[in-house]
Q: What sequence folds into this?
């Protein structure tokens, strides 16, 4: 009897697993912009190999050319893509939010691109991952997928070029002002729970330099500083500063 009971329970578990898989794929279908451009065989191979992953804030998802994680699609959460210098300084290239996709985590599928990027979860995040080899095979077969891949890669390189322009031509006070305003927009509040070290990592600067800049902002009445928190007091003046 016990053995028969185990078989029944195992069968129920198998059906439940299949049900969860079907729900996962259905959700993915609604979010993956190329789904309707795929043929039946391509849809099946993605469905059979699709990975779902939940990562906690601070988790490193992809780490340079040592990894070829695959195509990432953010179901919910927030990721940060950054590069790391030989001295250990970080600078954020771009961030990913709900329904955003990242291809640099699968740059190994494109021989001409060798990009040493790290991808970290800035918040608890739910992900879908199409393994690199699966996506590469479909990209070779499907012109819409290949075209979309090129467009996505071009968009990311545009983000990088914009960042380079900011570093080269924009003073640090303007970049800090822009970052603070971007954070208030993302978080939906003027009270930012963020450290000076985190801002320095985003902007490719040193913590001490960011601290001096923020203290200057505080002296000008733009922000209020407290331990682990920055309160934006005058967003209009910050907007004026970033545009000047």
A:
């Amino acid at each position: 009897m016990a053995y028969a009971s185990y078989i029944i329970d195992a069968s129920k578990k198998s059906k439940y697993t299949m049900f969860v898989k079907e729900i996962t794929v259905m959700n993915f279908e609604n979010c993956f912009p190329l789904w309707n451009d795929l043929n039946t065989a391509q849809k099946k191979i993605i469905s059979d190999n699709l990975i779902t992953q939940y990562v906690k804030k601070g988790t490193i998802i992809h780490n340079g050319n040592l990894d070829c994680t695959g195509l990432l699609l953010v179901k919910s959460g927030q990721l940060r893509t950054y590069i790391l210098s030989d001295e250990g300084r970080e600078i954020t290239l771009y961030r990913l939010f709900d329904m955003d996709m990242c291809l640099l985590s699968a740059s190994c599928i494109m021989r001409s691109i060798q990009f040493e990027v790290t991808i970290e979860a800035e918040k608890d995040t739910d992900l879908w991952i199409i393994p690199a080899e699966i996506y590469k095979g479909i990209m070779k077969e499907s012109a819409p997928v290949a075209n979309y891949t090129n467009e996505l890669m071009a968009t990311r390189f545009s983000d990088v070029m914009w960042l380079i322009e900011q570093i080269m031509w924009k003073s640090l006070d303007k970049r800090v002002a822009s970052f603070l305003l971007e954070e208030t927009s993302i978080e939906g509040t003027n009270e930012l729970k963020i450290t000076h070290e985190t801002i320095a990592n985003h902007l490719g600067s040193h913590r001490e330099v960011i601290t001096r800049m923020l203290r200057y902002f505080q002296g000008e009445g733009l922000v209020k500083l407290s331990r682990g928190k920055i309160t934006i007091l005058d967003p209009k003046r910050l907007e004026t500063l970033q545009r000047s």
